[in-house]
Amino acid sequence: LDNVNFAVRQGEIHALVGENGAGKSTLMKVLSGVYPYGTYEGEIYFQRQACRFHDINDSEKLGIVIIHQELALIPMLSIAENIFLGHERATRGVINWNEAIAMTQELLKRVGLSESPNTRIDDIGVGKQQLVEIAKALAKKVQLLILDEPTASLNENDSEALLSLLRQFKEHGISSILISHKLSEVSKVAD
Q: pTM score, two decimals?
């Protein structure tokens, strides 16, 4: 990456398109803290504040969440366990499963899934797994959602459902960065 200037407004769906190897994913990994401050030159500003992310937890605390092309779900765990993995609803080390299940039901409703929070990830299809990843981002109070080729492995119906969800998020002030090679999708949703 060299001389990159990139700005996203609140409630905007910003598309990022380019050839393989052009640096799209690298830029998003810098923005989300996967590549920590000091491994690159330049500045990141989020909500007018300079940011120096040392890891992905730093960016997530501010509401910047990245969903990679390869989903980061544990197949043998339930939807609820995946959504709160690393961010458990707990008091003094004891997980409050009633709270986690109730919150998972609300999050699943927001992304259009009717599955039980106790459903194992390996019992649902890739399209639904992608929606679980988005529910996981919502659980982290996402302000800026970065999606790296989110529809690459989805069929047309699942892709359309995901794009529709991005439009809904836009209405609620959530910004999105959509990395895609599918120009038809970009032209449908991107500002």
A: 0.86
